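Data availability (excerpt). The following record was deposited with the supplementary files.
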Amino acid sequence: MKIRQALISLSDKRGALEFAQGLAAQGVKLLSTGGTAKLLRDAGLAVTEIGDYTGFPEMLDGRVKTLHPKVHGGILARRDLPAHLATIAAHDIPLIDLVCVNLYPFRETIAKPDVTLEDAIENIDIGGPAMVRSAAKNYTGVAIVTDPEDYSTLLAEMKANDGALTLSTRFGLAKKAFTHTARYDAAIANWLTSLDETNNPQALAAFPQKLQLAFDRVETLRYGENPHQQAAFYRDPTPLPGSIAAYTQLQGKELSYNNIADADAAWECVKSFSAPACVIIKHANPCGVAIDGTLLAAYEKAFQTDSTSAFGGIIAFNGVVDTDVVAAMSARKHFVEVLIAPAYTDAAKQLLAAKQNLRVLELPFDANSPNRYNDFEMKRVGGGLLVQTPDTFAVKAADLKVVTKIAPTAAQIDDLLFAWRVAKYVKSNAIVFCAGGMTLGVGAGQMNRADSTRIAVLKAANAGLAVAGACVASDAFFPFRDGLDILAEAGAKAVIQPGGSIRDDEVIKAADEHGIAMVYTGARHFRH
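Predicted structure:
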């Protein structure tokens, strides 16, 4: 289908002039609106303004520009139906072969802290989506362009095909166009249904009444959690910088469903530390976490926690991986499914290249970025969706409440805060023993806290690590004193927990009896 006439009406004018010049160079007549027409005319292009084309000026402060039969007739007429062509000929409506439109900046408008309801409403596009949908519906005869990134590719195809675009290209553009309008409408619906009864944009509800979601499929995975399940990975259209969805895979096999889920857990945990850190994840739980002066030292300590579980795990670092780290992994013959870091030295990449099946992900991030979390966390359930805000609670030493006769030392406070940070990423019920900036034993995912405590002690013993004098984090309160008694028997000397049990006095009394220092955070870290 040869392009003879194009309608260009753009809010985002990036590349618009160059695109219009490329069309004009191939003999395409140009129609345009308002500011876009002025841009093209000022550059010396021959362009017909839409008001002159339809015989009606833009009206109602620009609300009505393109809503006219001469526009939509020229777009929607089916080229394969003589009756359609006869009708538009009878009404002197020329065919429009290409429509280039993007929409009013609604998302940008509502992102302003001082946005008013009136501003938001005025930035709801009407004519733009109508043209986009009309052209996309009639893709067999019309090309619809909504993405400036497509301009150069389309011009090249036209030049190579005597001004024509293939049906395959037009259908691809139509799919992109319907996605474009769907997401535009979703943004409007989400924002409007977040308004409270006062309709005050500065008092938006945390959750829209009608939640519309949009994700782009990155790849179809080999299988899901198990080989008999199908799976795919979808990415947010605008993923947070430094989130797992923004990874670059440098080498290795395809990522699996479980690889991505575990990599996310490892990455979120390791990003939470400012000191050089290593996190080893197995089946969604940390089996070794450590901080130290170097990544190599952190790795050595993390590996010690549970070298058995570390086999086939996911390793994440929060700094540049060098040859020392890679050599240490090789010396231990440490089989790893996925390795994640913000960057690698060139020499480290060369060493890693010998491990052809190892999936190596590079994922730069800004540790000081205030925007580190998704707006929502979601979990699909039968017939519905659970949605919550992310767990952004972070406790500092000054926030801790000492509830026992003995107060923790400064060194113990550092370890308590370290263990508390790790516990946030351990499946509940979670118990974490640590000392010297490394985990000693991790108890995860048990139905009662006492069993999690026993498992953490057992894990440490299996690794040959002494827990006498250790610090312990519990992701939620101790409902009874039994968990406290177990960790005291193992030799723990300081505990961090949220508090809030009806038996808090009983647990505090147990801590005092055992000579244990205990502090409260005031908030729990359940992870399911």
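Summary of structural features: The chain has three domains: 5-203, 245-362, 397-520.
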